[in-house]
Amino acid sequence: MKSAFITGISGQDGAYLAKFLLDKGYEVHGGVRRISQQSDTRLRKLGIAGDVKLHDFDLAESNGIARVIRLLQVDEFYNLAAQSFVGSSWDLPIYTSDVNGLGVARILDCLRTYSPHTRFYQASTSEMFGLVQDVPQRETTRFHPRSPYGVSKAFAHYMTVNYRESFDMHASCGILFNHESPLRGVEFVTRKITTNLARIARGGKEPLQLGNLDSRRDWGFAGEYVEGMWSMLQQQKADDYVLASGVTTTIRDFVNFSGQALDMEIEWVGSGVQERGLDRKTGATIVAVDPTYYRPAEVGLLLGDASKARDVLDWTPRVTIKDLASMMAISDYDALH
Ligand code: NAP
Ligand code: GDD
Question: Does 210 sit in the ligand 2 pocket, CB within 6 Å?
Answer without folding.
Answer: yes
